[in-house]
Amino acid sequence: MSSSSCKTSEFEAAGFDSVGQDDIGGGGVQVTSFTELVDDVTLHFQIIRLPKQIYAWIGCNSAKLGNLYAAAHTRPSNTVSVTSILGGASDNTGSGIARRLVLKTGLNVIVACNIPKNSPMLEANAEKKLVEKLIALGHSRSKSPAAGPVLSSS
Amino acid sequence: MGGLEQRFPVPYKSLSLDIKGNTTDFVICRYEDHFLVMATQIGTMGTILHARKEEGVTVQPTFNVSVIFGKRDEPMLLAITRQLIEHISSSGSSMPLVLSLGLKDHSMETLKGIVSAVMENRLW
């Protein structure tokens, strides 16, 4: 693996229905893009894995950014808080996903989601696909200390 | 299955540079209605800023730049954001920018390094 200090990887994904592309860019950033067809709806996913945070974008039939949410564990209590940081004033589509991603990964999470409001089934399907991919990439927190996938470090 | 090849609708670039001794990771994405630029030295997105062009009555466009998450007391972050949105606008695009900056230092040299790295790898 090259260790030059300036490495550029330009990437324009091309793929069919559910082919995924991974790109380990410079440093500790891993970008994963994929598209799934669920119930006649095209869902695009983009996961940017930073060393201490995950950014995820969910596009429903379009490539608009959508509403942005930030979620994190709030100490000292063991709860997860989520806040809307762009758009999303009257609908919370995506905020639940952000919260549950923190629980699943143990990391701070930023979620961008353009799923239309009042689509709980779509939201649930999108979350399911996203979590499947996160587990496959090794980003989910293992429930038992011994077995299971651990947080990827690179 | 049809033979239709579909490109992932969000083109992006990802790179890593050394700026003033700090490894800086960049991700630049082009959504349908926003540009997203991330520049981080700290392993997280850091402070998130939003910038958009306001079409006014006068010929000169004005820009609205604000912090939407994180440090609100570091003017250098707003300065970077403003430089980038002005460049986006002068390149002909009216799309707003979401910029995340997770920086270890906020010096002029770092500012220039970030701006020039983003310009060289821009998607507008």
Characterise this structure:
The complex is a heterodimer of chains A (154) and B (124). Chain A contains 2 helices and 9 strands; from the N terminus they run E-E-E-E-E-E-E-E-H-E-H. Chain A has 154 residues and is α+β, with helices and mostly antiparallel strands. Chain A has one domain (8-136): Ribosomal Protein S5, domain 2. Chain A has a 7-stranded mixed sheet, with helices on one face. In chain A, helix 1 runs parallel beside helix 2. Residues 1-19 and 143-148 of chain A have low confidence and may be disordered. Chain B is α+β, with helices and mostly antiparallel strands. In chain B, 23% of the residues lie in helices and 38% in strands. Chain B has helices at residues 75-90, 108-120; strands at residues 6-7, 12-19, 22-30, 35-40, 47-54, 62-69, 97-102. In chain B, strands 2-3-4-7-5-6 form a 6-stranded mixed sheet, covered by helices on one side. Chains A and B meet through strand 1, strand 2, strand 4, strand 5 and strand 6 of A and strand 1, strand 2, strand 3 and strand 4 of B. Chain B: Keywords: Proteasome.
List the helices and strands and how they pair.
The complex is a heterodimer of chains A (154) and B (124).
Chain A lengths: L6 E5 L2 E2 L4 E5 L5 E9 L2 E10 L2 E8 L6 E8 L4 E8 L8 H11 L2 E6 L6 H18 L17
Parallel strand pairs in A: 6-9
Antiparallel strand pairs in A: 3-4, 4-5, 5-6, 7-8, 7-9
Chain B lengths: L5 E2 L4 E8 L2 E9 L4 E6 L6 E8 L7 E8 L5 H16 L6 E6 L5 H13 L4
Parallel strand pairs in B: 4-7
Antiparallel strand pairs in B: 2-3, 3-4, 5-6, 5-7
Helix pairs in contact in B: 1-2
Quick structural summary:
The complex is a heterodimer of chains A (154) and B (124). Chain A is α+β, with helices and mostly antiparallel strands.
